Each structure stands twice: as structure tokens, then as C-alpha cells.
Amino acid sequence: MIEVAASMARGPVFLAGELMECLITFTNPMSHLSTSASSEMLAWASAQIHCQFHASESRVALPAQGNKQDVQAESDTVLIPSRGERGQCVLDTPPKILFCDLCLDPGESKTYSYSEVVPIDGPPSFRGQAVKYVYKLTIGCQRVNSPIKLLRVPFRVLVLQGMPEPPFPQDEEVSPSNPFLEEEEASHRDARPLERALDMLMVTTSRRCPHMFNITNLRGKVAKFCIFKTVYRLGEDIVGTFNFSEGDIPCLQYSVSLQSEEEIQQHYQRRPGQAISVTGHGRHLESCLHTASSHFSLPIPLNVTPGFSTDIVTLRWRLHFEFVTAREPMEPPTVLQNQSEVTVWVGAEHVDVDTFSWDLPIKVLPTNPALASYLCLFSVQPNFKYIFL
């Protein structure tokens, strides 16, 4: 019996281009005091990263792949990391040999360190209604005269797409200088692609420039809407304000929803003019009759996928607004000055209303992968074990 355990100490979320490190431990769990205990011989073990793609047959029309045979079925000594998985492998890294001819005595264990740069040319991790991209670290191990056994460790990949051009020269430091770091160490830090990308991400999503919109329908002006920026990163709050005092049409109720749009590229659509899949990720609903101003705050979850685009699918983000307005003016309740008695105002039982909606596109970018890993640390344990005979 052999026990294989994999652990990602930093967490299971990585940014494309980041170095992923994993500790892999091989253990012979039999106690040396057991009468049936014996040494175990492992022929070899290797590890590699691969991205598995799966599409819904009812929504995506993929080109024929031909009759691909799994050579694993014919030979037990060939490692295929995606063997037995649904879909197709769209990206993989070269396998790295961890060891050859390892002998483990009863109760003995050996730990090996695996490191690999997450490819920058792949899609992000995504589980949509029509398309899925799943990343896994596959550890293959074979005992002498035994078939290959696979341990798959899922992890999440964030990809920076849609970043605007930096407003500063490439040789200019992005982050504030640290007087406690030596000049050589500081320049070496800023040269790292990952940290430079995170600095650019922070600068891009920190810019505030109020955007003003007049909300109107066919009858007139309803309100003025203000949002402070349209580019966000995962985990941020989207804050907006409404000013109804400048409107001519009474607004009874409004709602704001954070939605993602999953659109299949035209060449891969199963039907012409196929509808876009819309998924909601939060909603704010408020009654606002006789309200002069109001605001909302919608958090962007850490576990969603930022906007991206591939040859098959495009993911966009938007704010979806819905308004309910009255067709006739509605007088506000009047309260006399120096009135001592309590006045109860009762709303109208029947009001003729109009409804209309509006979509505001926004950009959602990744966040620091260490921050996104905290969510996974509380929801799932980033340690994986597999026992085989």
C-alpha cells in the first residue's frame, strides 16, 4: 500500500505566469511492527499541469476531432494526464520526473517539491453554462509490475485580459518606492512580471472618474445616476448613487443586478442567433417613492471569473437596472408644521405604472491570487491524498 499526498501551501489560486509550487509526499503507511509489513518499490513518478475543456453539446458545435484512441488502454506504461476525463485537453506542460526507483520501508515517507510556471497563453478557470475550463495538476505514479495511478489536484487560474495600456513609461516604477529596501533588491522586485502585473492591476482599478447618466423613459426624466468607476477587480464593491429630486417622473422602485454574459462565438453556435447566457451574481432592490436620493452597493464575489475571450466563448460583465415608474404625478404626504397628532400616510391601492430596463457594461479584472485563495482555504482543504495498492 502506498499513500500519495499533495499540498499547495500558498493556496489553490494562481495568476497566469506565476510559479506554482506543490509538495508531494509518498508514504508507506504500514507500521514496521506489523508482521505483514514489507518494503514498497515505486518505478517512477511524474507531475504536469493540464487544462481540460468541456462544452455543452446542445449549445456549442465543435469541429469533429476524429477517432482518437487512448493509448493508455493499450499500454500501462504511457502517462496521459487527461485519461478518463470528459472533454478535451487544450493545454498541458511537459511532464517533470519526480524520481525513479524509489524504495520505501514500512513507515517511511519521501517528500518532493514540484514547481512549474502556469502558462500565460491559456484560458482562465471557468465553469459556465455552455463552456468549462478546468485546470489540474496530475501526479502519475507506477509501482513495479502495476498499472499507472493518477492523483489529480484541481486549482484555479486567473488571467489578466483587457488591461489598458499603462499610462507610465516601462522604466518607471509602478508602486511607491520602499526606503527600507536596497536599490538592487527593489529593482529586482519590480522586474518580476507577476508583481508588476499586480501593480498595474491595482493602479488600473484604483482610478476614480465619476460617470453621470440621465435615466429617462418615453414620458420624461426619472433620475440622475452616478457611478464612480467602471473597472473593478474581484472582491470589490460596486457603489452607485441615484438622485430622484431632478426627475420629472415618480419612481416607485428600482433594482440593480450584477450579471455576467456568456456568449458563444458565431462560428461555434449550435443555432444561428443563439441567445446569450446570463447569470446573476447579486441584486439590490429598493422602494424609492418620494425619495430624494438613494444608493446601492453590490460586492463582486471572489469565486467568479473575470471577463475574458477565447476562440470559442466570450465572458462580459454588466449592471442590469430595472425601474418601475408611475404614469401620473403622485403628491407626497403633507405634514403640517406644529402638528401634535400622529399622522399615518397610506399609499395608493392602484397605480398605473411603466417598467423599463437598462444595461451598463463594466469590466471585472482579477485580484491578487493570494486574496482569492483565502476563500478556498475556508471552503475546501487544499490537501489531496490518494491511496492505492
UniProtKB/TrEMBL annotation:
Signal peptide: none annotated. The lineage of its organism: Eukaryota, Metazoa, Chordata, Craniata, Vertebrata. Residues 166-189 are annotated as: Disordered. This is GP1 homolog, RAB6A GEF complex partner 1. InterPro entries: Rgp1. Coiled coil: none annotated. One of its GO terms (biological process) is regulation of cartilage development. It holds the Pfam family Rgp1.
